[in-house]
Amino acid sequence: MKLPQQNPKGRDGGCDCLPRPAAKAPDAAPPPVEASAATTYVLRYEDRWFGMEKRVAFEAPDVAAALAMMEHEPIGGWAELSKDGEIVCRRGGEPDGAADYWVAD
Q: What letter does residue 26 receive in the DSSP assignment?
């Protein structure tokens, strides 16, 4: 198997075809970092394995991201997501055991 090697000077054909990062000025300050606008959500649900109520508080930028974060929680028969003490949405499901869904309040 052939291993890549650097070309000796003068053998690259004078072509600089690989993109290279622009040189940074030594006195350039990094751009300011904006504070994240994350909101605290509370997930209250019945644990699928133990049947007891659980509460999990976490931060997410919006409801869609919060729902994506909850995907791996072992949610049982019911669940609700709240923000600032107000319920944002509840978990629903079909009686025949079809796919679960979230209903916005």
A: T
